[in-house]
């Protein structure tokens, strides 16, 4: 899939947008085997990309799901030297980009390949980005069990300029649990996760929006506000994690009201 400067972009290996409750149980074959490329979406307000589902505002239940493929967000903007790469929200993940106000359940899933973000001349000014091997962003409650991420996650701004206040969440299993209870059990990350972004904001600053990078879960809550509970049990991460700024953890980047 190739798109250039749309207003809002929904892309999924099976579904761009789901408006009704959806349930799927896979088999031994790959659920989606292929690549997705977004080209020069420089000023797109909202971008939602998933190897299986891009965006859903209804409940989703998935079991025995396999994703094999690369997701490339190519913001290189060849020939552009002055305009910023501005986007309000970016969600990109190997299985589902974002689910809104609805429950998400995924059991027994693997994600292979890569999710990559690249720019050329200017740092990305994305208000909130959620990048993950499995789930990007959710706010209606999540139950994730027996998920393994083998997909490399790479955020490369390709410049050394500071980018304070633009929050990037990256994690092998789920990048951002905005609200709703989260239960994450027996999930694993084996892949490299790299965030090249100079966001100097700290988590103790009100509305600071620091970057969060982790093997399993990036962040619970938005702007450090999270009134629900998260339980993380039996999870491991063996992949290399690197970041130039922000909060980094083998299991979690920043979690609140959590039992780990």
Can you describe what's shown?
Helices cover 0% and strands 55% of the residues. The protein has strands at 8-12, 15-18, 22-25, 32-33, 36-39, 46-50, 53-56, 60-75, 85-93, 96-99, 104-119, 124-132, 135-138, 142-149, 152-156, 167-171, 174-177, 182-185, 188-189, 193-196, 212-214, 217-220, 230-233, 236-237, 241-243, 247-249, 252-254, 258-259. The strands form 3 sheets. Strands 3, 4, 5, 8, 11, 14, 15, 18, 19, 20, 23, 24, 25 and 28 form a 14-stranded parallel beta sheet that branches. Strands 1-6-9-12-16-21-26 form a 7-stranded parallel beta sheet, with no helix packed on it.
Features:
single chain, 260 residues, mainly beta, 14-stranded parallel sheet, 7-stranded parallel sheet, globular
Largest sheet: 14 strands, parallel
| Continuous helix count | 0
The share of residues in helices is under 10%
**End-to-end separation:** 38 Å
Average pLDDT over all residues: 85
Q: Report the radius of gyration as a whole number of Å.
A: 16 Å
What structural class do the secondary elements suggest? mainly beta
């Amino acid at each position: 899939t190739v798109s250039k400067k749309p207003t809002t972009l929904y892309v999924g290996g099976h579904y761009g947008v789901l408006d009704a409750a959806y349930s799927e149980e896979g088999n031994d074959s790959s659920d989606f085997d292929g690549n997705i490329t977004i080209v020069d979406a420089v000023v797109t307000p909202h971008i939602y990309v998933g190897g299986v589902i891009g965006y859903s505002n209804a409940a989703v239940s998935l079991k025995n799901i396999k994703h094999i493929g690369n997701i490339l967000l190519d913001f290189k903007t060849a020939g552009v030297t002055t305009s910023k790469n501005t986007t309000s929200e970016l969600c990109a993940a190997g299985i589902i980009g974002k689910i809104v106000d609805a429950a998400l359940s995924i059991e027994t899933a693997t994600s292979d390949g890569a999710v990559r973000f690249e720019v050329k001349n200017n740092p990305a000014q994305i208000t909130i980005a959620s990048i993950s091997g499995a789930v990007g962003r959710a706010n209606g409650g999540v139950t994730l069990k027996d998920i393994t991420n083998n997909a490399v996650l790479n955020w490369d701004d390709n410049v050394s300029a500071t980018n304070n206040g633009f929050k990037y969440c990256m994690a092998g299993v789920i990048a951002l649990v905005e609200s709703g209870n989260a239960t994450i059990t027996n999930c694993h990350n084996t892949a490299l996760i790299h965030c090249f972004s100079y966001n100097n904001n700290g988590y103790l600053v009100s509305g600071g929006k620091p970057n969060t990078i982790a093997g399993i879960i990036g962040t619970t809550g938005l702007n450090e506000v999270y009134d629900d509970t998260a339980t993380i049990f039996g999870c491991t991460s063996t992949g290399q994690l690197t970041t130039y700024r922000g909060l980094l953890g083998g299991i979690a980047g920043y979690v609140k009201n959590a039992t780990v």
